[in-house]
Design goal:
The chain is an alpha+beta fold. It is 56% helix and 14% strand. It contains 6 helices and 5 strands.
Length: 174
């Protein structure tokens, strides 16, 4: 069933808003996945604040060309049946969500990505991004490293205090 012109214009406007705010847009070929599989992908993406869209590539091209950031971006990878994962919060989350899903559904194959700066990324670069820790994991690691000396000092002082108390207790029992 064909989509009406008004519906297409509404869809393009919605895509423009979503893509303009996106920090990362990952796209993958999904030929061979069922509707239930796509719904499962949407559920897992929702938990990571990632939006999943299945849209005609021509409409995505129109939306991208109307955004200054993406005007000069290479869109040659937008071919075939593609599913788009978009995040306005985390640069790595779309790649991680799609990669985790692809592990159980090998029909999903990365085709590429667009960064928030308007750069086109290859499928190999997206796969490498998927292996990076998330923003929250990186923050937790930095905080852990910063608190490490504090924990070491606290443990050392605590150990000396326990030894002192054990010594006092030993003297009191004699």
């Amino acid at each position: 069933m064909a989509i009406s012109r008004d519906k297409k214009q509404t869809l393009v406007a919605e895509l423009q808003n979503t893509l303009a705010d996106a920090k990362m847009t990952v796209f993958a070929q999904y030929q061979g996945l069922s509707v239930a599989d796509i719904q499962e992908l949407r559920r897992s993406a929702r938990e990571a604040n990632v939006t999943i869209k299945v849209v005609k590539n021509r409409l995505v091209r129109v939306a991208l060309e109307s955004i200054d950031t993406y005007k000069d971006t290479d869109m040659s990878r937008l071919q075939g049946q593609l599913v788009y994962a978009i995040s306005s919060e985390d640069e790595v989350a779309p790649a991680q969500v799609m990669d985790a899903f692809a592990k159980t559904h090998p029909a999903l194959q990365f085709a590429g990505a667009f960064s928030g700066e308007g750069n086109a990324l290859s499928a190999e670069e997206v796969k490498a991004l998927a292996g990076l820790p998330s923003k929250n994991q990186l923050i937790a690691e930095v905080v852990s490293q910063l608190l490490s000396p504090v924990h070491d000092i606290t443990n050392a002082l605590s150990g000396n205090l326990h030894a002192l108390l054990d010594g006092v207790e030993a003297k009191a029992t004699n």
